[in-house]
Design goal:
- The chain has two domains: 94 residues, 2-Layer Sandwich (Phosphorylase Kinase, domain 1); 190 residues, Alpha-Beta Complex (Aminoglycoside 3'-phosphotransferase, Chain: A, domain 2).
- A five-stranded antiparallel beta sheet has the order 1-2-3-5-4, sandwiched between helices. Strands 6-8-9 form a three-stranded antiparallel beta sheet. A two-stranded antiparallel sheet has the order 7-10.
- 38% of the residues are buried.
- Helices cover 40% and strands 14% of the residues.
- A hairpin with a 7-residue loop joins strand 1 and strand 2.
- The chain has 306 residues and is an alpha+beta fold.
């Protein structure tokens, strides 16, 4: 889920989509599926509106023009990535066109069952961490030639952290705790000093709990590749702080063989998102509290390594 503004503009204005509109689009463009029921999923995400189409498919419609940039990318690359990965990912079945008053391209996918990950629902967090690391390692091994480089289509994931330096600095100024401001700034500067100098590799771009599906408490699928691309994979490491902890964090890092510099940049990605969430306007209290807790955990983790 992408909530933050991009470096050159505000959060895009989202367009509402309802069942009736989805039904009109399906009937007009895919009459073979016209008889199938359409219903919204309980948690549809931010970048896309998501609906079930029958029992075996889903429809994803970008909520704004900026998010629609990912549609063609996913249509092009997910079928290429899927055969190389150890877990299922969404593979598009059809590409929809603008119509019925809806202005963006959209996609039909095969439905992947499972529940979004949470620490409470995961049976063995260390095993989960290793399974996720194996998935990301396999993703990084896919041939990156011709793959999408960091840009507006993925909010510059895979690019340098410095892209978000001004935004992070402005957010830090809003922190009331002077000691926290100093610690956050030190961690951020340490991350900026670690520059990616390796060859570009594939990354997911939004490895978050909501995009990791569980069955019987184990990781069984990875979804939402809207921010994927080729570049620096450090952005995929933020999950080490947002969901993992202790031995599971260590198992994740060890399985991926993450070097010190990449680990520092991954910590920087996690810190950036936590700080801008915590200091954001109109952020729900529970979300702000979670972001504050994450900042505290990142500071503690960094101090142990110092």
């Amino acid at each position: 889920m992408t909530l933050e503004p991009d470096p050159v503009g505000p959060v895009p204005q989202r367009r509402d989509v309802d069942v009736a509109l989805v039904r009109r689009l399906v009937v007009a463009q895919f009459p073979e599926w016209a008889a199938l029921p359409v219903r919204p999923v309980p948690v549809g995400g931010w970048d896309n509106h998501t609906f079930r189409l029958g029992e075996d498919m889903l429809v994803r419609l970008p909520s704004a023009a900026a998010y629609a940039l990912a549609v063609e990318k996913e249509q092009r690359w997910l079928p290429v990535l899927a055969p190389h990965l150890p877990l299922p990912i969404p593979v598009p079945l059809a590409l929809g066109e603008p119509g019925a008053g809806y202005p963006h391209p959209w996609s039909v996918y095969r439905w992947l069952g499972g529940a979004p990950a949470s620490a409470a629902a995961i049976v063995d967090l260390d095993r989960f961490a290793i399974t996720l690391a194996d998935f990301l390692a396999a993703l990084q091994q896919v041939d990156p030639r011709g793959g999408p480089t960091p840009g507006q289509h993925n909010w510059f994931r895979g690019g340098p952290l410095r892209t978000y330096h001004r935004q992070l600095t402005q957010a830090v100024e809003k922190l009331a705790d002077r000691e926290m401001r100093g610690e956050v700034t030190a961690i951020w500067r340490a991350a900026l000093r670690q520059v990616w100098d390796g060859p570009p590799v594939w990354f997911h771009g939004d490895v978050a709990a909501g995009n990791l599906l569980l069955a019987d408490g184990a990781l069984t699928a990875v979804i939402d590749f809207g921010t994927c691309g080729v570049g620096d994979p450090a952005c995929d490491l933020a999950i080490a702080w947002t969901l993992l902890s202790g031995s599971s964090r260590a198992a994740f890092r060890g399985r991926l063989s993450v070097d010190t510099g990449t680990w520092a940049r991954g910590r920087g990605w996690a810190l950036w998102k936590a700080v801008i969430t915590y200091t954001g306007a109109a952020v729900p209290e529970t979300q702000a509290a979670a972001a504050k807790h994450l900042i505290d955990q990142i500071i503690t983790d960094h101090s142990r390594e110092a």
